[in-house]
């Protein structure tokens, strides 16, 4: 393995300073509710508007949105919802006998109140709202609270508002940052308290989600965008370069990485990246991202390349390798996988239907991305009768006596007595 280009730095999502700031924000909002939220909105966003976005404001804002943009968002909502529905249909309820008189199972129950955080970002990303909200709607959430920064003419961008309404958001608030997460987690006079919070955000949002976890559920903690392009000698340098830059432009700390089994192809891709970047606007985050975070690695063999991919556990793994599907079973650490050179990550970012809220910072070692399953609970139940009581109560009584748990033994032994059964311990 050889680095042709190595990252100069690596963004740390969490720091003591960020942790302390977020802790203070959460504590203040817990104690002072709306007043604290408004304080932070004015300080961080220069926003002095009402927290709740009224139906009148939503309608007026959406009326200014061009019809072609609405058509695009409608398609996004439709496709994300369709994929979420297909996923939900895979999570089946269970009812089964596990021996005579032992009936057990589980139910699929939607989370009642969902909090959706939608970043403001540098651009109004049309898919961000639907990605977080549509799966919650499909899951069956009764109330979906959406928060997004008021960074467009004193409010939320019309395209974001339209996407939130079309996806099923029931309440929308012009609140950003850690204060939005705290408000949804603990509730204020205006913002309802939720059960689970989903959605990406900056390091303050990520840290806030980390700190409120336990009080509420969260989907995952997602940092700046990541992509790893895995390529062999058959790959096209222009496509590889374009795919790297598509994610690099999200954030100065986005990570665009290439792993190639061909030195020639890797070197040509670097040249193409440099050529493309000359055409990018001077303020594009892609410049800093590629300069400071970009990496290019040459693997000696295909096997080594696969090992590198699995070790990076990257958010987006795009395989530009001949017969890429044949490698699928050997790749297991990624947020989302893109097979063949034309399966652009951009399709998933925008409209294909899979979710673009995905694990970063090697979290793909233990989790996937946001999906409809984040908004449902799989809860078990059991009904024990007849012979099942004899079997389980006898076992439980004996085990409880060994463990010295008097209450457990009592509860099991009462069932034995009622069914005229003597446990093996003679009690």
TrEMBL record:
InterPro entries: Ald_DH/histidinol_DH, Histidinol_DH_CS, Histidinol_DH_monofunct, Hstdl_DH
Entry's family note: Belongs to the histidinol dehydrogenase family.
CDD domains: Histidinol_dh
Gene Ontology molecular function: histidinol dehydrogenase activity
Entries under Gene3D superfamilies matching the protein: 1.20.5.1300, Nitrogenase molybdenum iron protein domain
Known cofactor(s): Zn(2+)
A UniProt-annotated Pfam family: Histidinol_dh
Protein name per the record: Histidinol dehydrogenase
The entry's keywords: Metal-binding, Oxidoreductase, Zinc
EC number, UniProt record: 1.1.1.23
Coiled-coil blocks: none
């Amino acid at each position: 393995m050889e680095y042709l280009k190595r990252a100069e730095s690596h963004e740390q999502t969490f720091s003591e300073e960020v942790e302390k700031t977020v802790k203070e924000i959460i504590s203040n909002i817990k104690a002072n509710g709306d007043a604290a939220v408004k304080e932070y909105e004015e300080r961080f966003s220069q926003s002095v508007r009402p927290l709740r976005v009224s139906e009148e404001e939503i309608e007026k804002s959406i009326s200014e949105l061009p019809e072609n943009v609405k058509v695009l968002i409608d398609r996004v909502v439709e496709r994300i919802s369709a994929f979420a529905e297909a996923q939900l249909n895979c999570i089946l309820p269970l009812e089964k006998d596990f021996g005579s008189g032992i009936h057990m199972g589980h139910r699929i129950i939607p989370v009642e109140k969902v909090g959706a955080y939608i970043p403001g970002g540098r651009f109004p990303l049309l898919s961000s709202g639907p990605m977080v909200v549509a799966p919650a709607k499909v899951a069956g959430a009764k109330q979906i609270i959406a928060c997004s920064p008021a960074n467009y003419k004193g409010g939320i961008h019309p395209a974001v508002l339209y996407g939130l309404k079309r996806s099923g958001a029931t309440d929308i608030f012009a609140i950003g940052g850690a204060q939005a997460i705290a408000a949804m987690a603990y509730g204020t006079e205006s913002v309802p308290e939720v059960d689970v919070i989903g959605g990406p955000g900056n390091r303050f949002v990520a840290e806030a989600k980390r700190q409120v976890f336990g009080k509420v559920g969260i989907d995952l903690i997602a940092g700046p965008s990541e992509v790893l392009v895995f390529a062999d000698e058959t790959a096209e340098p222009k496509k590889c370069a374009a795919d790297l830059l598509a994610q690099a432009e999200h954030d100065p700390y986005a990570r665009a990485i290439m792993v190639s089994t061909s030195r020639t192809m890797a070197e040509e891709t670097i040249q193409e990246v440099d050529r493309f970047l000359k055409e990018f606007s001077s303020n594009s985050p892609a410049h800093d991202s590629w300069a400071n975070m970009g990496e290019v690695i040459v693997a000696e063999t295909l096997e080594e390349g696969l090992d590198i991919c699995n070790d990076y556990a990257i958010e987006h793994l795009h395989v530009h390798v001949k017969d890429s599907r044949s490698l699928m079973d050997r790749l297991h650490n990624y947020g989302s996988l893109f097979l063949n050179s034309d399966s652009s990550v951009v399709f998933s970012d925008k409209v294909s239907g899979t979710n673009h809220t995905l694990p970063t910072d090697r979290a793909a070692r233990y989790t996937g991305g946001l999906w409809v399953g984040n908004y449902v609970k799989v809860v078990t139940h059991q009904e024990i009768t007849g012979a099942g009581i004899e079997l389980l109560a006898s076992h439980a009584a004996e085990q409880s006596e060994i463990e010295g748990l008097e209450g457990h033994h009592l509860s099991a032994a009462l069932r034995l007595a009622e069914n005229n059964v003597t446990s093996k311990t003679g009690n």
